[in-house]
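Data deposition worksheet. Section B asks for the primary sequence of the deposited chain exactly as it was used as input, without tags or linkers unless they were present during the calculation. Section C holds the resulting structure in token form. Section D is free text for depositor observations; keep each observation to a single sentence. Incomplete worksheets are returned to the depositor.
Section A, Depositor: J.P.
Section B:
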Amino acid sequence: MRLDILGDMQRFLSLKSLLLMFSAYLLMGCSSAISETKPSPLYNLQQIQNHQSLSKFIQLVCAGGYPDMSLVRMLVPPRSLLSDNWRHCSEVQKQRFDDLNQPFITPYGLLGEEDEAWLFEIHRLLHKNSFAFMSVWKPLHDPRDINFLHRAFATRPYLTARMMASARGPLVGNEWQLLAKHMDRILLASDHDEDRRLLAFAMARDNREHEALTLIEEQLNKGDAVALYVLPYVALDMPEPIEDEMADMSEPELGYRVVPMLERYLVQYRYPRSFCRWAAELTRGPLKYYVTMVLNNAQENMACPEGRTQS
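Section C:
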């Protein structure tokens, strides 16, 4: 009798072990199936190596119907300086792009975990808490942050240069100046006007006004009318009264670079009407003062009454 009971117990334990083993195999199979069905990233950021590949990436985001545009906004300059690569974007996406207060979110399923972690870190260093252009200065003192950005230029050079140049807050200081050398080199090597306009914007943002004006002038000499829209970001000086019997007003160093620059552009490109539209959008201030001077000097060659109002 006792032997029968022991035999029954052994058979029960063997059956229980088999059931446990079978359950374990089922769980392993389910987890394997889940891992196999997990979608792979649709894009690798290493593919963005120039303006052409960047435009394709923006088109991918827009055509994919992703509602959040904070990642695209981190890659591009102010809307007025953009190239025409928005035809794939919906009106909702364009509206979300214009909302500078949106938090940074990466489109779900588009990128891998490594790329997403890298983006959130570079966003923290370059863009976080900067909602208005030219407002909050971005500090850079932590050696770990500096090393991260230097590695970023080594592993993703063009992408890092675009993100640094697109930052809304000024990047001023010795640490940023060292990194700016990489940004300048990469974007100056580009043959696309948007990259060079963006670099001029970054120079103006970072108190590098002379360099910004030089680059804007180069773009205008090439006929890049959109480069005019960088000028409002350049802090210009104004003539001031001086105590001198031979002169009534001082000659501002930056301001008087703008006047001949614009006059040469108008003559070279036969007084384009687009200049009138740009001038009419300017508000009161130093740039309006100089543009009014230019238009008054050119009034015999172009009719632009809306631009000749007093500053």
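Section D:
Confidence is low (pLDDT under 50) at residues 30-36, 307-311.
Strands lie at 241-244, 247-249.
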